[in-house]
């Protein structure tokens, strides 16, 4: 699974965006541009998103996920398709790997299993039975890598399925088009 790299915007064509750490969702009603403006302008912290950064998103899923805005916009797209659990799980696993305390790791592993892995979980991800059972065993003595197999499967699913659809989506196309004309979001 690729590691994350930070992308730096370089082009003068920019799209101003106001955002925060909240998850970008998908609202109904109005046109796509209005929905994006509503969801992406949630705080007064103004930062800029440029055409070059957005065009880098089309190079790989890794590039998309390494961008703060790319991940939020991809998540909005996945929510619109009712399939955001894969990205959510992938992010939760990335955070889980950073835990140092064995007590916290054990508690978090159980929560992740109950939420995403076990059969009929509220946010169940699409993994095979064998991987599910390996994880069930792994969380008995949790480590930073106990969800790696499932995370690789989910990343592969996003890379082969959701990501190509995102690149063809109205959300992505509208954002790319909007950077050619100055637009404050």
Structural description of this entry:
The protein has 185 residues and is mainly alpha-helical. The chain is built from nine helices and two strands, in the order βαβαααααααα. It has a two-stranded antiparallel ribbon. Helix 5 packs antiparallel against helix 6. The longest helix has 20 residues. It starts with 13 loop residues before the first strand and ends in a 7-residue tail after the last helix. The N terminus is likely disordered.
Brief account:
The chain is mainly α and 185 residues long. 55% of the residues lie in helices and 5% in strands.
Task: Give the tags.
185 residues, mainly alpha, 55% helix, 5% strand, disordered N terminus
Unreliable stretches = 1-30, 41-47
Q: What structural class is derived from the secondary structure elements? A: mainly alpha
Number of strands: 2
Which descriptor suits the 3D outline?
Answer: elongated
Which sequence of SSEs, written as H and E, runs from N to C? EHEHHHHHHHH
Whole-number average pLDDT? 79
């Amino acid at each position: 699974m690729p590691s994350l790299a930070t992308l730096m915007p370089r082009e003068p064509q920019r799209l101003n965006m106001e955002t925060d750490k909240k998850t970008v969702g998908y609202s109904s009603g109005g046109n796509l541009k209005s929905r994006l403006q509503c969801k992406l302008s949630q705080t007064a912290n103004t930062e800029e998103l440029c055409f070059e950064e957005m065009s880098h998103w089309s190079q790989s899923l890794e590039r998309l996920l390494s961008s703060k805005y790319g991940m939020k916009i991809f998540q909005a797209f996945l929510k619109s398709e009712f399939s955001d659990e894969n990205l959510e799980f992938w992010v939760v696993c990335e955070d889980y790997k950073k835990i140092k305390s064995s007590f916290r790791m054990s508690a978090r592993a159980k929560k992740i299993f109950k939420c995403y892995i076990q059969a009929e979980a509220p946010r169940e991800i699409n993994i095979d039975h064998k991987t599910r059972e390996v994880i069930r065993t792994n969380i008995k003595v949790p480590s930073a890598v106990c969800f790696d197999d499932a995370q690789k499967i989910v990343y592969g699913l996003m890379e082969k399925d959701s990501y190509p659809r995102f690149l063809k989506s109205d959300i992505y196309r509208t954002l790319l088009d909007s950077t050619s004309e100055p637009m404050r979001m």
